[in-house]
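Page 37, continued from 36.
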């Protein structure tokens, strides 16, 4: 079974995004889950809809491109969902 991909949608200068990144690095390392970080402002040149959809709710955590949480990382739910992927 493949590993779930965790994506953090973020923006430069966002303190909540920096906290979320630190939390996700620790959690993803524990589950050997790949972590991708996407700055929605930089990505807007190629995908303006990404910023339009998520830009006002950052940080946003996606699991396999599906929204998992926003504003802050839902750590209990993330642990539960990543554990379920490994079973």
């Amino acid at each position: 079974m493949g590993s779930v991909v965790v994506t953090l949608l973020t923006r430069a200068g966002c303190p909540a995004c920096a906290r979320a990144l630190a939390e996700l690095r620790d959690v993803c390392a524990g589950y050997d889950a790949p972590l991708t970080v996407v700055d929605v402002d930089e990505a807007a040149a190629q995908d303006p809809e990404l910023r339009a959809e998520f830009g006002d709710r950052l940080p946003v955590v996606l699991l396999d491109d599906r929204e998992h949480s926003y504003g802050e990382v839902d750590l209990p739910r993330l642990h539960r969902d990543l554990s379920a992927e490994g079973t």
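The helical segments are 15-31, 40-43, 48-54, 75-85. Flag for discussion at group meeting. The longest strand covers residues 6-10.
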